Amino acid sequence: MTTTPDPVHGDDPLAAAPGTIPALFHGLVDDAAIFPPGNLPLADAVEAHHRHREAWYADLVGPFLVSAAKLPGLVALADPQRPLRVAVVVPGGAEGVGPAVAAVIGTPGLVLDGVETAGGTPEAIVAAYHEHVPEDVAGAVEIPADADLDAALGALAGTRHRAKFRTGGTTAGAFPSAPALAAFLAGCVDRRLPFKLTAGLHNALRHTDPDTGFVHHGFLNVLVAAAGMENDEGPEIAEGLLRSEDTELVALLREQTPAALAAARTRFTAFGSCSIEDPLADLVDLGFVAPPGATALRSPRVDKPESAARPTPESQEHP
Could you say which DSSP state residue 10 is in? Predict the structure, then answer.
């Protein structure tokens, strides 16, 4: 069953004892271990997911993502004694939704948590979701980078389903520009439409991969930008935040009100990552999470704590 994150527990959604995950980050990282560039073998990925779900950081981890093509292998591995929450990724458009959903629902040991579909029109995919997907499960519709954004998001507005946007891949062209990502975020916030992101978003802060030279967006950048938009900041401010590689974003996130953070997570539901360890390590490094046994959270690593001024597009280097 798809659940909506509830990041407000008490007065501070960023508060957490050592060995626990702050409520703001609950369910933020969907496990995409079998997808590029991770490409973990299916059986190994399933075992690793079970370990994640039993670990101290389990609250960070969302469902196991499986492609429709690998569903038969997952069905063979299913164990009713170890239920697996699954979101199935259907690349072939609306026609593939019914068979994929039926395969998961009909398998003891697999629990349908979501469906993510690319190809065809959003209208056709939503219609397939309404026909085949249980009412307590939300689907996601991938919006291509070259789509008519207003029309695509408009087709999802008012439904229980989410928009999905690709933030990276195995080529430089798969990474959207900051203005393109900001426009997608603004379109979702304006329509009160939840969304998820996928690919390339393994780390908290925007950075350039030293091996590939690809410029990756950061999930912390997205959270800060989404929270700002909930406070009526425009896409031009979001562009600057998305371009920032500065750890002053830690201070900017901590400055947000609990209401703005709750709204940001209601909108930004999750991102798919082939690594659970990378985002977890960044949250530890930036001082949001302390491993078990730590006496307290470390002081956040902020390069410029005396200045948390919001960057603007003009102050940041364009990709």
Answer: T
According to the model, what pLDDT value does residue 303 have?
47
Helix (H, G, I), strand (E, B) or coil at 174: helix
- C-alpha to C-alpha distance for 52 and 49, rounded to whole angstroms: 5
Which residue reads 């292998």 in tokens? 73
Give the pLDDT confidence of 128-174 residue by residue, as tens digits: 999 999 999 999 999 999 999 999 999 999 999 999 999 999 899 99
Where helices occur in the chain by DSSP H, the ranges are: 42-54, 71-77, 97-105, 122-132, 149-156, 178-190, 219-230, 235-243, 248-255, 258-267, 277-285
Give the total residue count for the chain: 319
Q: Which two tokens stand for residue 24?
A: 């703001």
Whether 75 contacts 99, CB under 8 Å: no
pTM for the model? 0.90
Place of tokens 């993510």: 116
How does pLDDT run across 100-125, given as a tens digit for each residue? 999 999 999 999 999 999 999 999 99
Answer whether 269's CB lies under 8 Å from 5's CB: yes
Three-point CA angle 301, 19, 259, nearest 5°: 65
